Each structure stands twice: as structure tokens, then as C-alpha cells.
């Protein structure tokens, strides 16, 4: 049996060894091993301190604080943010302010998009700034966090430089942002996102960071098997990433658990939108149990989105390049064939903006697929998504699809007959059926492909121009009905060029407004002009 003093010395030596070993592992970036060794040190150290028979060295408290801080750093590197934050709080309970810990906590909070809390950490760290530390790093974090906090509050994103640079270089800074929105029961299906005030075209609705994304090349393989195989691998990797993100973070788990798994949507709880704000407090009863894997797969099936690039000009990637991801708040947006919003993806963020003016109380809707296609194609697409669309446009087009002329027009469309003749026939039929207002826009959007081919062809316009409505009239009705689109913008720009250069001030203003519907109000005039002209 060792004497208490002898035992104390042995314990102190053991702690010394563990601390030394853990620090070495941390310096060599061996995160998991260093976490384990710090845990051994922390447990021994705590027992030692709480033992009434020992006279712990006062320096031991400092070592314990540092061990928590270092374990937080290692856990941050393994993206175990929940546990890393707990370690930071333990360290700060022992010593506050503690520069190293505050820096680590700030970085974790920044990763979790909790900008104002992160900013607070960096500000306090700045007060406790030790002279031997590199001030540039802290200043860099302070500046970045201030900017993100402002963006998240204001939604004042500006992509001008990135656009003017031809989408080269770093992505623009993006922060999570939620506009004037709420979640409510939807007449379309289950829950939906609704505007809480009037929103004008181009305004940002939300910016949401993905829980996980997976990107890769999916070759349009000559053998179907190869393509399907690549798709399966991509989907599997994506699922693994989602599972990894949810197992480390209770908040992510909680948020995902709120999504529809495709069944009994009408009975689903309507969560408060504030629980999707990054700063939402953790303690409010986050999930304790893991989500069942079967449920998780259904959730991913119903809510995952294929990425859409900011602009076809931007992607610079060939058609083989695909990305899939899950964005929680954006998952509450229902589909409509006459959507009022558009989405783009930059890095891991989805950016949703109003593609036309939206009234207070109106539901925000996206086209889950290309809505510039005829009813038949859209029905196939919604079938793939697993639902029947009951939007106003589908209801109206279902009615006219019974008409004989409609059958002839559809047949002509599929066979690719003279586009001028088709447009003429459709316009004449709409006149006879007394189709008015938005409904005209619906049908024109359905057969947009032929309108497009007609309006961009000088030769065809010479032949058919007098017998079909003016391009401006068609464009206005289509945009009012289904929102802005790059292809519509293209027709307008081609028209302006035909009329001698880039058109007058009024035409340019109209094109810029259309541009805001297509790309959102995220750039200054010069950048928008470079995109549309
Ligand atoms: C991404 S979720 C949209 C939010 C969902 N309504 C909810 O309550 O969580 C996609 C699912 O919503 C439903 N949905 C979306 N748009 C729809 C539409 N136009 N018609 C019918 N169901 C729709 C379908 O069940 C679809 O699988």
C-alpha cells in the first residue's frame, strides 16, 4: 500500500504523462487519439482535485482548463460540434475569459451559423488578447463574423464582384437568412412557407445551408448500368454524410425530424419558423433518440434536391456534373406549376428569391422541375415525385386538354411541326375558348419552346410576326403567370438586339426587372447588365 503522498506523486506523474501525450497527438492532428487521451487526463485530474486527502497543485486547474480547451479543438476538427461546445463551456467555467477557448467556441458557433453568439466570443477574446498571439487571425474572424451577422439580419447579399469576375474565384460570402416568412398548413399539401408581408420581385426569401451535399460526375453512360451505378454510389455517399451530420448534432437531428416522410402530411406538426433560425437556443427539447433509418431514407427521398446553378453561364461544368443535397427550411416549400419563387445553389447554400411579386399571406412555391413544359410532361414529373399536382394551372389545363384542338396542338408540339403555325393555332384557339389573363400565360408557358423558337428567328418573325401577338405581350403574360426564367429573358434580349443594339432605356429597365426575377436582387446594375446582355 502506497503512502498518500507517494500515491499523489504517482498520480501527478501519470497526469503529466497523459497531458504530454495528448498535446503531442493534438499537434500531429491525430484528433480521435488526442480526444481519448485528454479524456483520460480530465477524468484523473477531476478525481484528484475532488479528493479531500490530496493537496492539488493550484496549477492543476489551469491544466484542466487547457485540457478541456484542447479537447474542444480536437472535437471541432472532427465536427463533433455539440461535444466541443460543452468542452468550451467547461473550460470557461474554470477560467473566463480564456483566449484559446473563446477562439475555439467562436469558430464552432460560426460553423453552426450562430453569428451573433460567435461574434460575442471573438469580441471577448479580443479583450483578453494575449500579446504572444497572432492578432491577424482574431481580426480576420471578427471581420468575417460581423459581416455574416449583418448579412443574416439584413439579407443584403451582393454578388456583383463575383458575377463581374465571370463567377471565378471565391464564392460570395453567404450566411443563413430567413425573410418575411412563416410555416403554416398549406392548401397544396401538408405544411408550406407563407409570406408575412408583400414581397416584390427579386427579393430574397431565404438562404439556407445544406445539412449535407454530394457532388460528382454522372456520365451519360452508353451502358445504362454504369450510369445507374454511379447514381447509386452518389446517393449512398450522400446518405452516409447526412447520417454523420445528424449523429453529431442534436439540432440537425431535430430539424430533419420535422420534415415530411411523404405520408399523412396533413397530420404533421406545424413547427415555428423561429426554430430554424441558427441562433435558436439548443435547450428547447432537442431529440434524444436517433431517427429510424427507414424514416430517414423516406425523408431524404421526399426532400432532397438536385442542385441548380446560379446561371447557366456560371456553372462552366458540363451536363454530367450533378449535385444533390438537403436544405431543411427550403424543404417546406411546396411545388406549383405557377411558382412564385426560384432557387439557386452556391457552394453548400441554397438561395431562394421571389420570381414575381408575392402578396402577404400567399404561399411560396417553387417549380420542382421545369414548369415551361406541357401538362403531359409535368404530370410525368409529378408522378416521379410521388404526388398529383392540384395547382391552379394544372386544374385549368386539365379542363382545356379535353378540347380537340388541344390534342392537335400537343401532337404538333411532339412532332416538331412549323413553330409559327403552332403559335398561331394556339393563340387562335385561346381566342375562341375565351381564355383570359393568367390562363393565357399558363398555356403559353406550356408551349414556351415553340414561342421561343419563333421569337428568336428573324426569318420566322418576318413570316408570322403579323399574325401572332407581340413578343412583349407574350413575355409579360408568361412572367405574370409562372415567374421569370432565363429563357424568357433571352428572348427579350434577342428582341432588343434586333431592334438595334441593346435597346432604349425603357426596354433595358424592363429587361433588368425581368433579370431580378430570374437571378434575384443580389447584384448591382452593372453586374446584372453583364449577365443579361
Ligand atoms: C419538400 S416537401 C414540401 C413540404 C411538405 N408539404 C411538408 O409538409 O413538409 C415535398 C412533398 O410535399 C408534397 N407536395 C409538394 N407540392 C405538392 C403539390 N403541388 N401537390 C401535391 N403535393 C405536393 C408532396 O407530398 C411532396 O412529396
TrEMBL record:
It comes from the Eukaryota. Residues 179-369 form the SET domain. InterPro entries: Gramillin-biosynth_MTr, SET_dom, SET_dom_sf, TPR-like_helical_dom_sf, TPR_rpt. PANTHER family: TPR DOMAIN PROTEIN (AFU_ORTHOLOGUE AFUA_5G12710) (PTHR47643). This is SET domain-containing protein.
Amino acid at each position: 500500500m502506497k503512502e498518500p503522498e507517494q500515491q499523489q506523486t504517482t498520480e501527478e506523474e501519470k497526469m503529466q504523462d497523459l497531458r504530454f501525450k495528448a498535446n503531442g497527438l493534438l499537434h500531429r492532428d491525430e484528433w480521435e487519439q488526442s480526444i481519448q487521451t485528454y479524456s483520460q487526463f480530465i477524468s484523473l485530474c477531476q478525481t484528484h482535485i475532488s479528493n479531500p486527502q490530496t493537496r492539488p497543485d493550484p496549477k492543476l486547474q489551469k491544466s484542466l482548463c487547457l485540457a478541456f480547451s484542447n479537447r474542444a479543438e480536437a472535437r471541432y476538427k472532427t465536427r463533433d460540434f455539440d461535444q466541443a461546445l460543452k468542452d468550451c463551456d467547461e473550460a470557461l467555467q474554470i477560467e473566463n475569459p480564456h483566449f484559446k477557448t473563446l477562439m475555439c467556441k467562436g469558430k464552432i458557433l460560426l460553423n453552426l451559423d450562430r453569428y451573433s453568439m460567435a461574434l460575442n466570443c471573438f469580441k471577448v477574446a479580443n479583450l483578453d488578447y494575449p500579446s504572444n498571439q497572432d492578432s491577424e487571425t482574431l481580426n480576420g474572424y471578427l471581420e468575417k463574423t460581423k459581416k455574416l451577422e449583418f448579412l443574416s439580419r439584413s439579407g443584403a447579399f451582393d454578388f456583383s464582384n463575383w458575377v463581374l469576375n465571370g463567377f471565378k474565384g471565391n464564392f460570395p460570402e453567404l450566411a443563413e437568412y430567413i425573410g418575411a416568412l412563416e410555416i403554416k398548413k398549406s392548401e397544396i399539401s401538408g405544411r408550406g412557407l407563407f409570406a408575412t408581408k408583400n414581397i416584390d420581385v427579386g427579393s430574397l426569401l431565404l438562404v439556407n445551408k445544406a445539412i449535407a451535399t454530394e457532388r460528382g460526375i454522372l456520365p451519360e453512360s452508353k451502358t445504362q448500368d454504369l450510369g445507374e451505378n454511379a447514381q447509386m454510389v452518389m446517393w449512398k455517399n450522400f446518405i452516409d454524410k447526412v447520417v454523420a451530420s445528424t449523429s453529431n448534432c442534436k439540432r440537425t437531428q431535430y430539424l430533419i425530424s420535422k420534415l415530411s416522410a411523404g405520408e399523412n402530411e396533413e397530420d404533421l406538426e406545424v413547427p415555428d419558423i423561429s426554430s430554424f433560425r441558427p441562433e435558436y437556443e439548443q435547450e428547447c427539447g432537442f431529440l434524444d433518440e436517433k431517427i429510424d433509418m427507414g424514416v430517414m431514407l423516406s425523408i431524404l427521398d421526399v426532400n432532397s434536391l438536385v442542385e441548380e446553378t446560379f446561371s447557366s453561364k456560371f456553372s462552366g461544368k458540363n451536363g454530367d456534373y450533378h449535385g444533390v443535397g438537403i436544405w431543411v427550411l427550403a424543404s417546406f416549400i411546396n411545388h406549383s406549376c405557377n411558382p412564385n419563387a426560384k432557387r439557386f445553389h452556391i457552394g453548400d447554400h441554397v438561395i431562394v428569391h421571389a420570381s414575381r411579386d408575392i402578396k402577404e399571406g400567399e404561399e411560396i412555391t417553387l417549380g420542382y422541375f421545369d414548369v415551361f413544359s406541357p401538362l403531359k410532361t409535368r404530370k410525368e414529373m409529378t408522378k416521379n415525385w410521388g404526388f398529383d399536382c392540384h395547382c391552379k394551372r394544372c386544374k385549368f389545363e386539365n379542363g382545356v386538354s379535353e378540347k380537340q384542338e388541344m390534342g392537335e396542338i400537343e401532337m404538333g408540339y411532339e412532332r416538331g411541326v412549323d413553330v409559327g403555325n403552332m403559335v398561331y393555332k394556339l393563340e387562335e384557339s385561346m381566342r375562341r375558348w375565351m381564355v383570359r389573363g393568367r390562363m393565357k400565360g399558363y398555356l403559353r408557358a406550356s408551349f414556351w419552346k415553340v414561342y421561343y423558337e419563333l421569337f428568336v428567328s428573324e426569318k420566322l418573325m418576318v413570316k408570322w410576326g403579323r399574325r401572332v401577338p407581340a413578343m412583349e405581350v407574350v413575355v409579360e403574360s408568361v412572367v405574370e403567370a409562372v415567374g421569370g426564367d432565363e429563357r424568357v429573358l433571352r428572348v427579350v434580349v434577342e428582341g432588343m438586339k434586333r431592334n438595334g443594339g441593346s435597346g432604349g432605356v425603357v426596354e433595358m429597365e424592363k429587361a433588368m426587372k425581368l433579370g431580378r426575377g430570374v437571378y434575384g436582387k443580389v447584384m448591382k446594375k452593372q453586374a446584372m447588365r453583364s449577365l443579361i446582355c
